[in-house]
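REVIEWER CHECKLIST
Item 1: Sequence provided? yes
Item 2: Single chain? yes
Item 3: Sequence as submitted:
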Amino acid sequence: MSQHETTLSTATSRSGTPFAPHSEADVEAMLQAVGADSVEDLFDVPESVRFDGSFGIDAASERDVRRQLTETLERNDSVTEFLGRGHYDHYVPSLVDHLADRSEFLTSYTQYQPEITQGFLQTLFEYQSLLVELTGLGVANCSMYDAATALGEAATLSQRIRAVTGDRVLVPDTLLDERRAVLENYVSGADLVVAEYQTDGGVVDPDEIAAAVDDDVAFVYVENPTTSGRIQPALEEIGTHLADSEVLFCLGSDPVALSLLQTPASVGADVVVGDASTLGLGSAYGMGLGLFACREEYLRQVPGRLVGASEDDRGQRAYTLTLQTREQHIRRERATSNICTNQAWVALRAAIHATLLGPDGLVDLAKSCHRLPQRLAARIDAIDGIEAPADEYPTLREFRATVEPPASEFVSALYEEGFAVHAVDEETVQICVTDANEREIDAFVAAIAEVLD
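Item 4: Structure as written out by the authors:
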């Protein structure tokens, strides 16, 4: 054993790891401060899943491992999804994979050294520019976890940029449970309270907003399209009302929808959040990319990294991380956020996808997401036992339908036919159709007819 290895071994046995700069006295002091007897007491790991030093897996050759994995995967049910509610599939061109899988992208962390990361920084700059154009707002960042954390960051932003005394954050009664849970976690540390306002399946009545907003409200969140795919018909009225107050108006959307719907800035939105991974990433049911754009006057309060364009000493265009207001190692207690990683690689994929589509292609994709649900709804409405759509609101990607048998039974029977849809309640199902499952529409309609026969 070398002298270096001996030193590391000694350090490890003393402090647990050579990379944790705490002495035994430091660790003991911290444990006393939180009332714990040992570091192990800080973790509640059930005995049934606690690692005991052995995985209990027999050694096997590569060929045997591949065979076992193949057999395991073949036991999975294979169904065609017509699911949505915040998770949307669009066809991702293979070029996105080929370019994003280049080693200089895959192995890159935060672009702290602009002299060696100009390509990545340029792509992120283009991604930010895309969001600025789609939202009409002046600033967009390139690194939010997902739609839920972006919403949480927007809510806490309201406390930093507005001279308000209110402590209530208003959200629609249709907000997805997982997003609300993240939001409540965020605002609990900012002494804010989450409250609901009533909607018609997500569609907002301006009078309802007017009645709900008072001096105690700091933030109002509206989704367009809604969780059920409905398009908001009165955003301008909502924006006009909120403009007369100090309330921060936050709109939830995504890049595909924004290419077709009203520009958030034109309806008075102060901040736009959502999931930008509708471009560049297939539906991953968890993995995402948080969209976050806001007015330019909020620039120094934006919770994320901003890539800017400048010139180098030769007068050539150069890119750099202009602002990093969230970094604890830079701002410490004045940091605007405690998010400490980034989704830059997913943002890169979104930028590549958007560039491949181009402005016209992106609009065409959004138009197809408006047209396809209409056509599918008309076809299944002709089947006895189902009425589609369930209302007359214009929609994007998805719609609701009412069924005569209990919705749970209908969904289960349809699953047996190889298709998955959401059951909203015992009378209503929700169906999502995009370019990703468009080719399965005929088989899907036939399966519905079979189930309801």
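Item 5: Key structural point noted by reviewer: Residues 344-381 form the longest helix (38 residues).
Item 6: Recommendation: ____
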